[in-house]
């Protein structure tokens, strides 16, 4: 795999921030339309965490490796064999590799993952390795 096809830390970070903010503001706007009250307090509970996790698991499967933020940044999630991701890949990546290992290591794995993305040639973090995935630049 060519080194320039891997998405770096900054691209991935910007995509994650965009994704989080776009989803949050969209849901807050819908909440406002139905209730007349604009509030982001609903984000502080488990409902938001579960919704966002389901989004991160299901949307890449249905949208060929993209979520909204990745699509804007022109990067996508791909299996290591260059096929489209499936439910098992995204579940292992997000639930086990990102959340469970992150909680068990008290966040240390997330810091290690940042350095892995910066310094590894294939730019894969712990959650990418667990999920059998990598994030690549998408040229469409």
UniProtKB/TrEMBL annotation:
Alphabetic keyword roster: Cell membrane, Membrane, Transmembrane, Transmembrane helix
InterPro entries found in the cross-reference section: Pra-immunoreactive, RDD
Record's subcellular location: Cell membrane
Principal subcellular localization: membrane
Start and end residues of each RDD domain: 6-131
Entry membrane topology: Multi-pass membrane protein
Pfam families reported in the protein's UniProt record: RDD
Membrane-spanning segments: 20-38, 50-69, 96-119
Domain of life: Bacteria
Protein name: RDD family protein
Species per Swiss-Prot/TrEMBL record: Virgibacillus xinjiangensis
């Amino acid at each position: 795999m060519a080194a320039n096809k891997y998405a770096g830390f900054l691209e991935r970070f910007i995509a994650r921030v965009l994704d989080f903010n776009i989803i949050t503001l969209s849901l807050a706007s819908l909440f406002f339309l139905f209730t007349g009250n604009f509030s982001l307090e609903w984000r502080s509970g488990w409902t938001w965490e579960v919704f966002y996790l389901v989004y991160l698991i299901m949307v890449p499967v249905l949208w060929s490796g993209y979520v909204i933020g990745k699509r804007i940044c022109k990067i996508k999630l791909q299996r290591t064999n260059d096929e489209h991701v499936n439910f098992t890949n995204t579940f292992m990546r997000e639930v086990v590799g990102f959340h469970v290992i992150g909680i068990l290591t008290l966040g240390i794995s997330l810091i290690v993952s940042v350095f892995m993305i910066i310094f590894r040639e294939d730019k894969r973090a712990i959650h990418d390795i667990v999920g059998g995935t990598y994030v690549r630049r998408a040229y469409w």
